[in-house]
Amino acid sequence: MDALLNILSYVFWVALALGILVFVHELGHFLFARLFGMRVDAFSIGFPPVVWRKQVGDTEYRLGAVPLGGYVKIAGMIDESLDTDSLVSEPEPDEYRSKPVWQRMLVISGGVLFNLVFAFMVFIGLTLWYGAAYTPIDNVDGIAVADSSVAYEMGLRTGDRILTVNGERPERFEDVFSGETFTADPMIVTVKRNGETVELTGPDRLLSRISRAEAFGVGYLPSAVGSVQAGSPAEEAGLRRGDRVLTIAEQDARQWPQLAEVIAESEGQPLAFRIARPDSLLEAGDPTPIERRGDLAILETTITPEARADGFVVGITNDLEYGREFRRFGLMEGIAAGSRMTWDTVSLYVNFFGRLFSGKESVRDSVGGPLMIAKQTKEAADVGLRSFWAIVGLLSIALAIFNILPIPVLDGGHLVFLLYEAITRREPSVKFRLVVQQVGMVMLLVFMVFVIFNDAVRWFG
Q: How far apart, in whole angstroms, are the C-alpha atoms of residue 387 and residue 378?
């Protein structure tokens, strides 16, 4: 039963996300066509078989059973249906082919424009509604690196302190390992390690490696105490929420993986903890600080881990919000932030496709299809509505960039024909356009089969 509910959850969230994106895209084509007086015979969300239809004026509105796309059938246009019956007669005033080139260009571009504007509105809405939580880079005194990760392969290690990325000092930790930094050729990270400056260079096809591994493998997981279990060794030793562990048994333990490793290997022997405690948490009876660092008191205490079924523990959890700051935005600030997020995401996808077509990234490892989209959308929805709408915004931009590629059948392919017509003052022949559209359709179908098969291999192993 749980498996069935999980499958239904996947279907619901991906259908909702794709339905929103397809509706926005096709609405762009539809409204521009209507703006210029073109007759729209059909507006469909989803592909056949049709499960619902309603005629309103000249247009039949449809819902298809396959929620992987949609279409707007504009009179007098050779589209994905390859229907040329209407081209036999002379052009009617309300047909696509009777309109000026610039109007037809706007109709073809309408879907892409609407996807970009929609993503922009989503990012503004998220910024204004939720604000922004971030970690100033100056608060990050070390990173946590997963073993066997892409980051570990690159040479990054737990405890490294980030100095620069691609020659620049980032302001926020969230900006350090983002899509923009991953598309640098090559990516160069400078860190401080054991008092020395170390420069590290990312491997070739970095985005492909990250996509294959599904993560870069770097986080900020400081050894900050989020909670102390009642009756645990940590409580008996006086640890409390807000403490920051610095060392254990004279070993660096500022990052949670370091702390966990030392405790796990302790075999229940007493461990000397050195912690930093804010002055606001100090109480009568606390040990005398061995030193002070600004408003922090540095204390020492001894804790003996106890054995449990899952190994040795001291009874603390980490504080995932440690070092993070929160900011609310006014209207104009929210618009500026939404613009920045939109531009950064567009730049990321443009760079990605450029690297893909130039052979700098692997198609097999980098490109995801319906199954991967479903997986990412479901995971985002499980986190919450904020994450769901964020992934919808990202996918909206991805859909826009993909559709504008100069590939027959896609919007970009139609624009190539229109550019040719605008430059030469003559239309390509109907026969030529049909052949190119048919080739494009085959290419797209082959590509879809490839990405679905590739998704299945990556997902099911």
A: 10
